[in-house]
Batch of 2 targets.
Target 1
Amino acid sequence: MATSTAPAGQALIGISGWRYEPWRGLFYPPKLPQRQELAFASRMLPTIELNGSFYSLQHPESYQEWHDETPEDFVFSVKGPRYITHMRRLKEVRVPLANFFASGLLALGRKLGPLLWQFPPQMIFKPERFEAFFELLPRSTDEAALLAQEHDERLEGRSLLQAPVRRQLRHAVEIRHESFACAEFVALLRKHRIALVVADTAGRWPLMEDLTADFVYVRLHGDQELYASGYGDAALDDWARRIDAWRHGTQVPDARTASPRAAARRARRDVFCYFDNDVKVHAPYDAAHLAARLGVATGMGPDQQQFVPPPGLAGPRRRGPAFSRAPRPGA
């Protein structure tokens, strides 16, 4: 699917997390050791949203292992700690931010993609608080390493304070309260070049498609039942149409926006899309079906269930949209 012959932004379609018991024996081959699930998933899809970081600070050794177990062109997005977004609610979070950036995520190197900041449904839009938070966010790995040096005693002996590669950092914000559906919030995101997460939550929380950065971040939680329902052909066709427009730098005519002011036109935008409808094992299959519509490479081909990671965690590489429209479990 393509709307233009001009070069498009990168479109990466993947899943949120990878450790799910119901996936074993279905998406994951029978008897595949749990320790090899990331190696398998990362060779089926080009990106994964790392969400363990939301619940607790991880360790540098874990980030290094995740880096080493995945293909060279793989991308992780990393979810910011709920301690900052849900517990502190952005109050006095400089040291917690330093702890997060000291906890090891810089070990991902070139595989580090956008950082996701998700806010709870009860949190309303307070412009001054979000302005202060956005000012704190590092915009490069160098800035992140500098901020990491301000970590507290909890990170003593378990921190990473240097970035192995120098690169820019991207941030995305997911909101769940109607007070954010306003032009002021969109303008604030554009000022700081932070992406507004396009979140499909089965109608439970706001779905906004305002373009606010040089990339778009999409989270598909289920269009009928939150975290559980799969996406049918019509829904996947519609999301493919939207993503194709965004990666070519344009907006769809029927965009659901909160601001009357259109985003500045760009030659292209990168798009990161993650399926979070994991309860009934829809997520990886929906991701592959959407990727196929966009011509995005995956490893979901006829030999999917035959993959066994050999020594060194080498494995089949992503070939292209060979998955086509194979049936999904429970579809």
Target 2
Amino acid sequence: MSTHDIDTPMAKWRYTCPNGHTSWEPTNSHFWCHQCSRVPDIDAEFWELHDRKTGENLTREKVVLDG
């Protein structure tokens, strides 16, 4: 299993929540999006990031946040 090392704030912008926001943060087993948390009836927790460059969806286990 290959991982995606996200080591700078600019690199983080390549990845989005399911709703297209870049304000996500990793948690122990999933992700959380600040912008989604401010919208009624949208779940701010999600389990896959979207890579805008490749179109791939990444699970939490594939993402390493270094920066």
